[in-house]
Automatic annotation (TrEMBL):
PANTHER family: TRANSCRIPTIONAL REGULATOR, MARR, TRANSCRIPTIONAL REPRESSOR OF EMRAB OPERON. It comes from the Bacteria. The lineage of its organism: Bacteria, Pseudomonadati, Pseudomonadota, Alphaproteobacteria, Hyphomicrobiales. SUPFAM superfamilies: Winged helix' DNA-binding domain. Residues 38-171 form the HTH marR-type domain. It comes from Mesorhizobium retamae. This is MarR family transcriptional regulator. The keyword Coiled coil does not apply. Keywords: DNA-binding, Transcription, Transcription regulation.
Amino acid sequence: MDRLLSTALHEARAGRETPGSQHLPQDDPLFPKLWDNPCWLSFRLNFLALQFNNPVYGRIQQQLGLLRPEFVVLWSLYLGNGLTLTEVVRSSNFPKNTLSRAVNKVATLGLIDREIDPSDQRRVTLTLTEKGRAAVVSVKELMLEHERAMLECLSPAERLTLSDLLTKMVVASGSWPRDLDLNAEAATTD
């Protein structure tokens, strides 16, 4: 099915201008990655994510001294204070061991508090401290400005459509495989 979709996309674009292609010469190394790439979705998503993550998290590291996973914990709690580590993992898609180390660091720095649930001693709730909230607020506008710059090329209707489509994919992602079993794939192709 992926090959069919990729072929269909390629054929649909053959002989016509593609969105944005009028500003991108065919000899640009980006051109084949956009228009001849069988993994078109993953390329676009990764490329755009890096356009946000590299400058924004680089600045956060300079300004706050926090690595991306550490700030992800703070941002998760900023959006939904009073979460467990498992809930932060689920809502960010980072590995649990990575976020566990991040939680330990931001707790040591006084950016979050941990509270044991009296009714379930295994449940630990994470909350932002005032210092943690101030850290997030200090870089929030930088993040929003960079995101606005990235979305500037889209009309308001296109932004809404993009948001709706990406939201649909994020929600569906819970049913996607977490690991790719190459041995199982080899067995089915033999």
